[in-house]
Write the structure tokens for this entry.
Amino acid sequence: MDKYKVPVLETERLILRAIELDDAKDMYAYASDPVVAKYTLFGAHASLEDTQEVIKNVFLTRPSQGKPEGYVIVDKETNTMIGTCDFWPLEKPGVFEMGYALNRNYWGKGIMSEAGNAMLEFAFDTYGVEVMSLKHHVDNPASGAVAIRLGFRKIGVKTLGTFTAEGDADAAIYELTKERYNEKRTSTKI
């Protein structure tokens, strides 16, 4: 089970750490926002209890399912949990998927790129990830812009059943190999 514990990561403005039940109030602040939830699988949370259940039954059960703990993003200045940025294994060994969500008050400030860079460094350098995939709703270009800034390449569009809480949608699919990540890291600062 220790294999699935994630270390605390720190950037200039952020702390990334494992999610805790005490994060429910901060998560509810953005997970209940229909603008944030519009392009996610979870849909807007109707109550703080909904958020507590998601943390208990989705995030905190990951290690027992052979998945790394989920990272939360904490704003150092306010000590507030403002989003998630995490990864989980897919069926093929070494292949993982990354996902992220962020409180709308922090959009457009480079927060997700900063958090994503820290998480990818850990995933590729320490956790044994060989390929990281990512998908986002095609009508959410800001998510795609983050993926590109992180070094991902768009590999296509796929129709996915029930991608969002609102129903079926097309998703843009991205991929970042460890080799490409290392090349980009040595040639430029990601």
About this structure: The beta strands are 9-10, 14-18, 71-75, 80-89, 95-102, 131-137, 153-164, 167-177. The radius of gyration is 16 Å. The chain has a mean pLDDT of 90.
